Amino acid sequence: MDLKKLKSARGFVKGTITRLYSFVRNELSQLPLETLKIKLEKVNSAFLEYESLSKEILCIDHEDSEDFAIVEDQFCTIATILNKEINSRSPPQIPAATVPSTPATSAIKLPPIDIQTFTGKFIDYVPFINIFMSLIDNNNSLDNIQKLYYLRSFVREEPFDLIKNLPLVGESYQEALKLLKNRYENKNRIVNEHICNLLDLRTVGKSTAGNLREFVSAIRQQVAAIKNHNPNIIYWDHILTCIILRKLDGYTSRAYQLERDLDAEPSLEDLLCYLDKRALALEGTDQGLHHQQPQARWSNYGKVAAHAAAADKPPTCLNCKSTNHKLFNCKQFQLMASKERIDFVKQNKLCNVCLGAHFSKCRFHFRCAECKGPHNTLVHYNEPALAPPVTLTGNNNSNVLLPTARVKAIAKDGTEVHFKALLDSGSQVSIVTSKLVQLLGLTPKQSATNIIGISNAKNHLKYCVPLEIHSLKSAFKTTVTCHVTDQITSQLPHSKINLDELQLPSNIEWADEQFNVPSDIHMLMGANIMFQVLLPEKSSVTPANNSGKQSPAQNDLHIFNTHFGHIIGGSLPTGSIKGQILCNKVVLKCEMDLNETLGQFWTNEKVPEIFSEKSPEHELCEQIFQNSVELKDKQFQVPLPLKLPLSEVKETLGDSFNLALKRFHNLEKKLMANPELFMQYKQFIHEFLSLGHGHYVDIEMYDINKQAAYYMPHHAIIKPESKTTKVRSVFDASMKTNKKVSLNDLQLNGPVVQRDLFDIMLLFRLGRYTITSDIKRMFRNILVDPAFTSLQNILWRDDPSQPIKCIRLDRVTYSIVQINVNTSENLKKIHLLALK
């Protein structure tokens, strides 16, 4: 399992422990005792799995930042509370002398036997079943139904599914044991898993006492498990010693080689004893370093260190107080404006690089992805782009406040993400930023849409995503389809609003507590949702002057009640806002232009017109064909269009016989292993010869110094669905000789003479009926000039006891590069002759 999957699994288990931690903080007295016992068992198994996953992650990532101590404290708290509650409800034990003598089965209470749960791992089956048989099966005071009850309670996942459908009767107990034994008592599988564990042991990068002891302990555990199933492991010392030495650091490995007797047989036990001694020697050195390190580290920070040790441990994330992530992974922090993040880091005296709290120099050397400066990208300050000033006519002593609300959405990993939304009744669609979509882990879908704004300005959006938003003030939630864009608008409001200039009610629960502070907008709620969240309640706000009296200005600032809380919007007096007046581009409508869409459709569906000029090689190939094609015995005969004269081929081509012979032996082995295939392949070769498409030649004639010759390997192609030839042979003219040249390399590559599929489809419009046919053995109906047949040889024999023979192919052969040119041009010539 890779690192990412391990961390995801650990996060899931950690979430289980966190939920149980929240569970035990509530009132438990009203819950059934069985529920508490199940919760206790669940937290025990979850913590064991958490420990196991953390060890695996540390083996891969030595600098894993997971705070194990917090989870361990939560586990101890949960176990303590649950045990205390369970024990308080258990009846007090009666002294043995006062218990009346009654039959053992009259009022039996199953004893609390604790056996590690079996989840289906093969290597855990033998230890589990041995303990179970010893504690449960051999207990004569239990009947089979009670034993079956215990067995079902100690298995989970696949083993439980295997026996859960058995009826709860005494006869089912032995059947359940048999089912588990047949499934998991697999000796070979268990040994293989232990061997894989040995091979997958983490390499010892640094020889410390702890690393070596953990390494030796893991080896002894796996070797002992293998010995229990395979006593012959005592003969494996050579192999195991080699594996272990490759996983040690170079210094330790060399030290062992210098110490041992090189003439003696390597011993696994000797190597493990040496590692134990080395770990013991390193322990003294490590302890001395540990005693000296704290004094050297904190000598310059006396009072500060003492204060830090005495204070309570702060939460992992300083922003949302969550223990599940660090500040740089906090979704709320990432959605803040850059200036807000910078102010937050300064107020909490955090490091600008790692965003952590420490006194010494930061050990990280991150660079900002925006400006390459020595700080984290999250605290990079973006200068807001100033929009061009806009002359506003009409009311000269007021500005406009747009209504905003803070809402939340649930990310894919279950965390809550709070963000600011702008409510706009003039928009037909809702929009979200791509940054918010990424933080929520959503997958956008393609949806090409034109967003049209002021002056008919268009913005093309390609994606949309369904988003479920929740109110922070009530249980209201709704799902809306939003289009995705990089940025909706600049920060709103553009400058901080002075609330002292307004007479705002004091008993109102605002949808956006900081509506007067500039913040990033991550969602635009259009008319499709704005009127859905509005409630009937509405009021007006009157601006006030310095003396507290009402201004004669119009009451254009209004408060509306919504499911998100109260929103405020309208005209503001000029004195309440400072800074530049900006005009936001408001989305007016969503338009899917029919003409543009139709034009795009025809553009996509247009068949490209390809006008390719013939290359000199194509022209030469066609010229050779036209000048040398002949009609003999009602069949066309063509030469092989070679790039060089036939007399020079023997020097260029080299030897192909030995490689073809090797390939033939491999084919023969495959055919001998399948007698039915061998018979069908033999029939194909015999038919090939009987039709006159090839003939035997004396293999002794082969001499590359006298004549150019090329031997082609061949293999079987099986087509069970074929109605005629289910098995046929394919020849390989691309095999390289000892001079790294093949027959195909020496031939000219002719042009593509077949029609395009689109052209063929268009022909179906010309006639009422269409007739299609298949030419039987089309390629093999063309003769090859006898001067060139020496380049078309294959090796064959009907039985391995016979000598190998050579078959010379007299017809055009598939897998030759010019085959399509020859067949297509010959068909054209036949057509022309028929017309004459």
Automatic annotation (TrEMBL):
InterPro entries per record: Aspartic_peptidase_AS (IPR001969), DUF1759 (IPR005312), Peptidase_A2_cat (IPR001995), Peptidase_aspartic_dom_sf (IPR021109)
GO terms, molecular function: aspartic-type endopeptidase activity
Keyword RNA-binding: no
GO biological process, one term: proteolysis
Domain Peptidase A2, chain residue ranges per copy: 419-455
UniProt KW keywords: Hydrolase
Annotated Pfam families: DUF1759 (PF03564)
Keyword Protease assigned: no
Name listed for the protein in its UniProt record: (diamondback moth) hypothetical protein
